[in-house]
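TOKENISE THE FOLD
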Amino acid sequence: MTRLMLGRTLERICKGVLLLCLLHFLIMMILYFDVYSQRFDLFSRFNNGRNGSRNNISGAAGSGHHYYYYNLSRPNATAASYMATGEQLVLSLQPETNQTPSPKPLPPCPENPPGLVGRLLIEFSSQMTMERVQKENPNVTEGGRYNPPDCRPRWKVAIIIPFRHRENHLKYWLHYLHPILRRQKIDYGIYIINQLGEDTFNRAKLLNVGYTEALKDAEYDCFIFSDVDLIPMDDRNLYHCYDQPRHFAIAMDKFGFRLPYAGYFGGVSGLSKKQFLKINGFPNEYWGWGGEDDDIYNRITLNGMKVSRPDIRIGRYRMIKHERDKHNEPNPQRFNKIQNTKNTMKKDGISSLTYRLVQVKRYPLYTNISVEIGKPPPRPIKG
């Protein structure tokens, strides 16, 4: 009897020990998975911290403190590395100042942009509208401004167009030039200098006005002067300034894609601010068609500079055909004036420019500047 009772007692003790062991095992498993889940969360937060993200502890909402999480179980880590990590953790718990990280500086734009196409197909038969051109150029900002977002431009270019009654030509010019200029990675603005009234047209004086008014808008260091009816046929003809004054339109279709004569400087040309001021800008006294380009060429050579030009295969242009404008008849005095450039260039130019600014209006694709520039002086009576 005594042995039977002793056996039952031992059986109960064994069952109790077994239950305790089982309970202990369950508790250990619960604690293990709880610690594992916290450890996994710690890993994920550390990874987020490595990517630069910050997490606010909900219990410290409104306190302005942020916390970083670090992985303290790195493989092959030493005690010193753990201590360094701990120091970083302590530093991260300190209140931070309201400092925003400075943006990474952009690299300079390449001298030869990689996105250029080369020879272009230029045609004027399709219908063109400003709405279409605007949809084609969503990255151009108000006033016809553009700055490449991925690099730092080497030049800040104002493109100046003398203008009167050429709205249809302007649509084609904007349609072709905006994409070309964007591919060339320049910071640019488009300025249409509109001569009000119906008096004799004065192209060179309008270009002087464009130079003056563009500088009121931005710190341009390069100025390109273009007729509105000339479209480049190759986007490798880069619209920026060079060490010498630049003549871009050297091979027009109306001249059989040849330079008409060695001193020709018409159509599209470019000068840096320093070059422009060195020649005192352009002449103001060429009323009507012709002569002002030759006067500008004389100013350049008389001031010790040379005209630079692109390769004739790249400097090709198409001209939009049109009738000669009214009040822009050939200037009968142009030949005499060209011969006197040396005597007139110091007193006739940007230093003597006068005009009346009437309106500046910024459109999505260009800035329109309307001006009154006066009338030509009366011609001397013959005999």
Remarks:
- The first strand starts at residue 145 and ends at 146.
- Residues 140 and 146 are 5 Å apart (CA to CA).
- The chain has a mean pLDDT of 83.
- The radius of gyration is 37 Å.
